[in-house]
């Protein structure tokens, strides 16, 4: 599977404030760029922290761009939540309507929560004992035809993907603001690396809105 990570940070590397509320760091041009990235993906993923903070639907994408790649009848990209214990609320926007939503869970998810996710329209994919085993879960997604995954965050999931060596490409929009705060989420949180830091090769730099888009391949 090809895994692409895209997120927007403040100039000081924050995804949001310490309140963990959704902040529009991107401007219109960058949101349009993200819609094109979504259109190129088989599925768009976020972690449960992002679902609980932002309640995203992940439905919006550039339909014209998708049709130009896949034809007019192409179905929209599927949605994915990384959610060990199936905490995704039944009324979460990410479970509403179409397209399909895969909930990547672990064995620790109680049967009642798995059933609640299914009743709300989601499809659990179980990998790992306590937390989601991301490598196994992505294999599960591949088995249902997902070859290109766009991950939008948040910082915990992005770090774990890097830690597991699963990221192929990283794109970051750096906006023109400073958020600050030691408890505010950053692009890659988790425990952090202390050695053997992932290495990136800079592929492109583009001015957009009042910020810049940086695109790296992961070596
Ligand atoms: N500016 C931007 O582009 C974006 C900003 N955001 C912001 O980011 C914040 C949310 O980020 P964050 O709190 O880091 O949450 P995440 O969305 O990264 O979700 C983290 C949760 O995912 C679950 N999880 C399951 N398995 C794993 C695993 N193997 N590795 C890591 N996590 C796993 C964990 O919960 P459990 O154990 O219960 O399963 C964990 O707490 C919000 O403030 C949101 O607004 C989010 C996306 C993009
Ligand atoms: N690219 C980007 N720029 C920002 O400034 C953002 N705040 C985000 N957030 C991500 O977008 C998701 C919401 O998407 P929908 O409104 O459902 O289309 C949100 O959950 C974050 O993952 N992204």
Please tag this protein with its features.
219 residues, alpha/beta, Dihydrofolate Reductase, subunit A, 9 strands, 26% helix, globular, binds NADPH dihydro-nicotinamide-adenine-dinucleotide phosphate, binds ligand LIKH6CAM, 2,5-diamino-6-(ribosylamino)-4(3H)-pyrimidinone 5'-phosphate reductase, 5-amino-6-(5-phosphoribosylamino)uracil reductase activity, EC 1.1.1.302
- What's the CATH superfamily, by name? Dihydrofolate Reductase, subunit A
How many helices? The count is: 6
- Assembly type: single chain
Q: What is the distance, rounded to the nearest whole angstrom, between the alpha carbons of the first and last residues?
A: 16 Å
Helix content: 25-40%
Reported CATH architecture = 3-Layer(aba) Sandwich
Order of helices and strands: EHEHHEEHEHEHEEE
Count of the separate structural domains: 1
* Total strands: 9
Helix and strand content put the structural class at alpha/beta
Main sheet record: 9 strands, mixed
The hetero compounds bound to this protein are: NADPH dihydro-nicotinamide-adenine-dinucleotide phosphate, ligand LIKH6CAM
Regarding CATH, which class? Alpha Beta
Q: Spans with pLDDT under 50 lasting ≥5 residues?
A: none
Shape: globular
What is the CATH topology classification name? Dihydrofolate Reductase, subunit A
């Amino acid at each position: 599977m090809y895994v692409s990570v895209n997120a927007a940070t403040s100039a000081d590397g924050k995804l949001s404030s310490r309140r963990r509320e959704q902040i529009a760091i991107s401007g219109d041009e960058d949101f349009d760029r993200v819609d094109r990235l979504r259109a190129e993906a088989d599925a768009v993923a976020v972690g449960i922290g992002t679902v609980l903070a932002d309640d995203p639907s992940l439905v919006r994408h550039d339909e014209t761009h998708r049709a130009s790649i896949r034809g007019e009848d192409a179905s929209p990209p599927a949605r994915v939540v990384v959610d060990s214990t199936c905490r995704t609320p039944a009324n979460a926007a990410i479970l509403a309507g179409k397209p399909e939503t895969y909930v990547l869970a672990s064995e620790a998810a109680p049967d009642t929560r798995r059933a609640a996710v299914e009743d709300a329209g989601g499809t659990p994919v179980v990998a790992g004992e306590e937390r989601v085993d991301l490598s196994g879960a992505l294999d599960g997604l591949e088995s249902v035809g997902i070859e290109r995954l766009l991950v939008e965050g948040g910082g915990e999931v992005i770090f774990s993907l890097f830690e597991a060596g699963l990221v192929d490409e990283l794109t970051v929009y750096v906006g023109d603001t400073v958020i600050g705060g030691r408890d505010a989420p950053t692009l890659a949180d988790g425990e952090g690396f202390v050695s053997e830091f992932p290495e990136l090769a800079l592929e492109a730099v583009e001015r957009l809105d009042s910020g810049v888009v940086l695109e790296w391949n992961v070596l």
